[in-house]
Write a structure and sequence with these properties.
heterodimer; A: 361 residues; alpha/beta; Metallo-beta-lactamase, Chain A; 2 domains; seven-stranded mixed sheet; six-stranded mixed sheet; 29% helix; B: 424 residues; mainly alpha; two-stranded antiparallel ribbon; 2 strands
Chain lengths: 361, 424
Amino acid sequence: MSDLSRRDFLKGLAVGGTVGYFAMAGVSSTVMKNTFIPPAKVGTEDIGECKSVSVKVISETSWFNNPLLLEDIKKAGGLLVNQYEIPWTNTGVEEGWKGDNAGGYATLIEVEQLDGSKRKFLLDTGWNVDWTDECFKREGLDKMLANGEIEFLIISHEHFDHYWGIESTLKHRPDIPIIVPKGFYPEGFELLKGAEFPKCHLSNKVPHTGPLEVRESGKVHKIMPGVASITFDVPIITRVFGEEVLVFNVKDKGIGIVTGCCHMGIISLMEHVKSTLKGGDKIYAVQGGLHISPFEDWDPQYDDLVLALHHYGIERLGCNHCTGYITAEKMVAANLPVIKGTAQFKSKRDIYLGNGDSMTF
Amino acid sequence: MNHKDYLWLETRDLQPRMKQPIQGFINFLLVTALFLIVWWICMDPRGILRWYTPQYGYMYIRWILIASIWQAYIFNFWPFSYKFMETRHPLIKGIILITVNLGIVGFMVWIFYYSIIGRLSIPYLSAPVLTELGMSSFFAREYSSLAILMMAAIASWLSPIWPVCFENHPWHGMKQPARGFTVWAWTFLLTTYIFLCLMHPHYHVLFYPWQEFAAAFPWWYKFAHTLSGNFNVGWVMCGTISIWLLELTFERYPFCLIKKQPLRGIAGFFGVLVFALVMFATFNLLQDISWGVAVEGAKRLYAPDWRYLHSGELACMILVPAMVLNFYFDNWPKKYAPSINIAIRCLIILVTTGILHYLYYKFSPPILGTQPGYSHPQQFPMAPVILWINIMLYHNWFMDLYPGKKLASREEYLLNPSIVAEKV
């Protein structure tokens, strides 16, 4: 190896430094980005219009003791373990429902069409059948299901707290049309047919006899005038995949979004709506779980979200469930329009919409 | 300098037991099979121990890497003698050195961080302390694991710089273990300092309410558009990979042309840094082209912090083919001028990295028990990739690439200083 003179070294340093600088400046430059990155799309998909939407929280308390749920997950091997293999604690929980830590998530949606007619459907069906039965009875859903007033059930995603209480719906109407997002695992379909999963204390004694539709991702699925669902290919903790959300185009107000858990992220979702739906640049209201701090955990990324939400001009924010209390406190502190609840029927705080509360937009 | 002052890895003479490429493929497949078995036992969410929770297992994987670097590069296998290294059967030697390696990892995690630093200084470096403070045991372990693994991530960038770029200057004349402890203390001090600047502000925001009296506000927020320390994870990983590319693929070229220290070390350090930043910016741009521009506050594919993290993950994937080419295929080619050799190797590495990236996301769900999709808040492709790298390092550094290669008799070889000097 030859020795290097000072002059050669300085020349090398100058060349290397210059090349490095321009390489770095080049790949991160606006010119480069404008050349290669396609411009943002403007939404053109027309889903029609509806007059108003009323959202009733049947249950947003998916579990009653957060540390206990996390302990179950930890013992099973963490957040990536299959939910059907986790022995969830179902006895001896003081603040639970009859000793069971499981609660569930379910929302009743009523859409008023432009002609004044009203149509109802259910988003998600809870976890603990006994708790969900109680909630359904409290809000009269048992009768609405039995007399066909509730047209169909849409499952946001396969998570235990949104889907495993399927028996509560089927016992009142076994033939209800069900819509699920792409990504359901075989266990999910087996449960619908009446399977039992003893390890996770799960069963369904009423097999489904009605139509089942699996909604593909990447499309806007129109449900009725002014109402559509969108499915996202999104990997979720405890080996769940795919989530669908509901979007509404409310006349003279703008877009309303209702979510189960919003695992794709509310900002990602709003950006998608903006680039897909006609009128998607005006998001008027958001309701449902926003999956930010469901376990009252935190990550700096969540602060990014709270800080950025201001840019979207949401006028009504009816968050709850997996949004988390920490997030709600931060949102309130950031002057975001969080709608307060009444903290009844085992919802712990009134900082956001709780069990039995409703929101109209 | 006595021959025992050179790195064992640089002076050992490994002879093939069979012809290439058979030898390379057999060794590589063996190591890959071993990686999959270890992953299944320790990490796989469907497996036995299920440590990939994810941060807990990932922390151990990171620390195995840095402990290996300390053993081989900083301490030159001290306290084991050259006689031990030369005469023991590779499997026996491997088992002993791996046991020491795991002992170091256990000591650092359970004693140094959990029981000393976490208890006496910074609580988030100890899972038991966070639990005692009232945090759920699950997140106490996840948060502390992230902090401890980040220490290892920064160390895996800074520790090799001293032996590789500075050739342990100005302590190159010292004997082991004095040299090892000196370089270790210096690089560990740097690691701690850099950690405090890059990751401690992440913990300013991580806890509620913000810890504004205990840690600085994330200084990168204005230009990185995220409060998350993943911004730093991304470029630090590019730095780690750059230093190993310099060592493995570039064989320290062109910095080895500079004879004088510390000039060579300084040029190497900044060269690596510039290379890392170019790599980081390039991967960020490639992601913007593939998925569109990241959006502040978004999650998953569109989250700025995930994009930065993924740049680090992509960099990490580069190291696998670079290592395989070096360890198992004799760093082919070697017959041309250094710049040509390097250019051909880089081309091979880039193409195989692309293939690896495709195969990883296609087959990791059934093979590793992960979930499909690129962006998952609880999945870190760096974990399996670094475990794979760790097994390759064990195989090469601790087991002399057995059974594909064997250690040649070193008696005559080491007695001739000119051969040693030429090789290093």
